[in-house]
Amino acid sequence: MPPKAKATGRARAPAKRKLAEEFPPGEVLTDTGKKSWKLGAPVGQGGFGLIYLADQNSDKPVGKEAPYVIKVEPSENGPLFSELHFYMRAAKPDLIQTWMKTQKVKHLGVPRYWGSGLHEKGGKRYRFMVIDRLGTDLQKKFEECGKRFPRKLVLQLGLRLLDILEFIHEHEYVHADVKASNLMLSHSDPNQVYLVDYGLAYRYAPDGVLKEYKEDPKKCHDGTIEFTSIDAHKGVAPCRRGDLEILSYCMVQWLCGRLPWEDKLQDPVYVRDSKIRWSAGAASLGASQMWTDLCSGGSKQLLSVKSLGYKDKPRYETLRSVLQSGLKSLQQKDDGQLEFTAGGGAAPAPAPAKVSTCPPAGFNAETGAAENPARFSGLHSGVEMLKAGGGYMHPQS
Ligand SMILES: Nc1ncnc2c1ncn2[C@@H]1O[C@H](COP(=O)(O)OP(=O)(O)OP(=O)(O)O)[C@@H](O)[C@H]1O
Questions:
Q1: How far apart are CA 168 and CA 165, in angstroms?
Q2: ipTM for this model
Q3: Is the full-model pTM beyond 0.90?
Q4: Is 44 in the pocket of ligand 1 (CB under 6 A)?
Q5: What is the pLDDT of residues 340-361, one digit of tens each?
Q6: Could you tell me which residues come within 8 angstroms of residue 263 by beta carbon, excluding any fewer than 6 positions away?
Q7: Catalytic residue, candidates 177, 197, 222, 293
Q8: 3-class state of residue 6 by DSSP
Q9: Cβ distance 44 to 59 under 8 Å?
Q10: Alpha helical stretches, state H, the chain
């Protein structure tokens, strides 16, 4: 079961989860396929335990360039168990490879799963999982860039995320916690981005059977509060439209530096209501015109896309073409280069009369919309993502 709402980007998991002890470098773990792995230094800490550099067992110590990491946690903890099931079902290397071939995608940012097992030490049992080793996370990059990403980069990240989400959705899962701190660059290629942390991933369609829409007051606001979907705020199990809605909030934050409800994240009801008001308010602001600033040519297509119902499959291809036309309007191409430049203004603005980046404040408290819509042009990429993919046919349909 997913933990309750995390406060923000780098929040830690609830204290009731047990923390794994630190293993010394050189500890050897054997997976269920009888393959042995050696641990190196820890490279990260989750809410429950540590993530170590790792390699296949050999005489050599595990160095800084290790190709794998191993996540270890006490065996009774739930989140790694859920995450492991996602990786075992959907992230086997040959499955990813086949998908990339059939879908003709050059890169798919889902870390590959290499093995898992149980390890005993000092009378305690630990669960572990071996996945690809990655590099820096995008939250760090976002901060280094002065909390604003260039528009070209936001559009490219949107494209990469659509590929990832389509893959995981087609394999019966939703992620439910997309955010910069859960996006990591490859260790070897700074132009490849990966979605990590499947601790909240939810199997929305086990064996192809979709879950029914059901609000549950006991499960309200799961996820990371500023980004979580309106469905999640209402205690409804995560679905595909929610992942796209969350992505759209991330894109808005990357473009504009902040979300309209960031001033009061400790109040989940306020955040939920702001999201509902904001989507409705922004939708009535002539969003298609503003979207044109970012995605000229895409707006028409986008307006023909109906809002998604709870069980609906998003039109990934339409969304991709919207983002592609946004790049075109910036006289840019999806060249596969992720350029993290500070200030967010690196890409030329298509309409010089309108600023290329969003100011940090100026949201109407009543409607949740931007007070000067023209200046907030970037916002509407997110809004249109919501309309096209996330959908606002709440509570149901
Ligand atoms: N594949 C990886 N390669 C390198 N470092 C990683 C990898 N996966 C995770 N890390 C590092 O470990 C940290 C924690 O990872 P992760 O978010 O998956 O753990 P978690 O327990 O789910 O965390 P949280 O409870 O905060 O959600 C990350 O912030 C990152 O620094």
A1: 5
A2: 0.95
A3: no
A4: yes
A5: 998 664 333 333 222 223 333 3
A6: none
A7: 177
A8: strand
A9: no
A10: 78-90, 93-103, 138-144, 151-170, 230-233, 240-256, 268-283, 287-295, 298-303, 316-329, 379-385
